[in-house]
Amino acid sequence: MDKEELNKIFGVFEKQIIQVQQEIQAIEQGSIDINQLKLGLDELAGKEGNEILASVGRGIFLKAKIISDKPLVDIGNGNFVEKTISETKELIDDQLEKLEIMKDNLEKELDKISEEITKAMEQSDRQSHDCDSCENCEGDGNCEDECGCGHEH
């Protein structure tokens, strides 16, 4: 494996690592957001009739009155189901567990990429220093300059 081929391989590994790290960061941010949601639900308990600032997105809020402390949970296709706060928190905990599993899988993928990089480096080292005639190096690249094997040391 020549240097150019090795650089290409490492470039592919680098792109994979960056992509996996970005996915891990997105999952971590999602976990933070979901945990904040749980805290917000705790604050809503028993606050029926109180006025709050409800976020409508990107730093824009409306004054709103809490008419029920039972959140409406989106179950897909525009359908909502009323849940208690504790039921909603259970759903949130399930989501957090799924995110943690996804994160663990991505971290295992990073470990595999790291192993592949190590293998590629070891293979490159073996190919660049394939010397059986040198009594001092045993093919590991740690021989004296005067070994006469013809490899660069």
Distance between the termini: 18 Å
Q: What is the count of structural domains?
A: 1
Could you give the count of β-strands? 4
Question: Spatial order of the strands in the main sheet?
Answer: 1-2
Helix content: 55-70%
> Rounded to an integer, what's the Rg over CA atoms?
28 Å
The overall average pLDDT, rounded, is 87
Put the structure in a nutshell.
With 153 residues, this protein is of the alpha+beta class. 56% of the residues lie in helices and 14% in strands. It is built from two helices and four strands.
Give the tags.
153 residues; 2 helices; two-stranded antiparallel sheet; alpha+beta; elongated; 56% helix
Kindly describe this structure.
The chain has one domain (3-47, 84-147). It is built from 2 helices and 4 strands, in the order αββββα. The protein has 153 residues and is α+β, with helices and mostly antiparallel strands. β3 and β4 (79-82) form a beta hairpin. α1 (3-44) packs antiparallel against α2. It has helices at 3-44, 85-128; strands spanning 51-57, 60-65, 72-76, 79-82. A two-stranded antiparallel sheet has the order 1-2. Strands 3-4 form a two-stranded antiparallel sheet. The radius of gyration is 28 Å and the shape is elongated. The model has no long low-confidence stretch (mean pLDDT 87).
